[in-house]
Amino acid sequence: MGTILRKELADHFTSTRFLILFCLIAMVTVVTTYMVGGHLKEGLEGVARPEFVFLMIFTTRGQVFSLVQFIAFFGPLIGLVMGFDAINRERNQGTLSKLLSQPIYRDAVINGKFLAGVVTISIMFAGLTVMVSAFGLLTVGVVPGGEEVARLLLYLIISIAYVSFWLGLSILFSILFRGVATSALASVALWIFLSFFIVFGANLAANAVAPVYDNSDAVQVLKNANVSKAVTLVSPVMLYSEATSTILDPFRRTTDELLLMGQLERISMSRFKNPLPLDQSILVVVPHLLLLVGLTFACFAVSYLVFMRQEIRSV
After folding, report:
1. Ranges of each domain in the chain
2. By CB atoms within 10 Å of each CB, which of 5, 126, 184, 293 scores lowest?
3. CA neighbor of 260 nearest in space, from 288, 211, 202, 220
4. Mind listing the pLDDT tens digit for each residue in 131-145?
């Protein structure tokens, strides 16, 4: 497996499409960080700097989106590009049967390819995080504290797990479909559906289960919002967005956008406005993290089982 891992790593880092995609993402990241840093520097001139201002570099929107939103919607492309032809390309070229005719276990092939992708994603996101932090230090001039660094490290781990899910999904499609173009189209189609159209489906389901009218009470509105959120949590994009926005924003106490509170709860919320500690923020997003990690392992497990049972013939 180590030999397969080193070979796949060399292929990834010397691949033209990977270098083009990485340069494109790095360029967008640098431009967005520069714009956000300039806006933050202008807004903080002459005023007392708020707590956790360094994290605002990642969560503040630039001209179109923030860095967290950009990774949430376009980060899956990295995993899809790296895995959509991982198996079927070698099968079509006849190299897969030659590889398995050597004293190499079949599970070493699929494990080595997936681990190589995870290592490549980890190196890429670690480099991007360090680059964004360096630009933040230069533009805003604020040194991050210990808790901010810990939150960024947790954000980095969540991002790696998130993109690894899409890597496992694309590898699964490369096993199921013999054509490279078919697996690529299937991967991109599922990404588009889970990223953009899932919101429309959630609204339709919520309006069908708990319709809201002009004379609807607060309980009905809250039920509609809960149904809509339950449907959107099927998408890893929404899981990642809510988890990372809560981790990088210590003042966010819940992932719900609509809350039904009584008088005593409103008084309590108005009194306790201090930021949450990191462990409390983690407790808020534990269900999202477990779902995201579980989806990643489940997707790779299905790929592993299908590949181990699939018949491979020499061409």
Report:
1. 2-309
2. 126
3. 220
4. 888 887 777 777 777
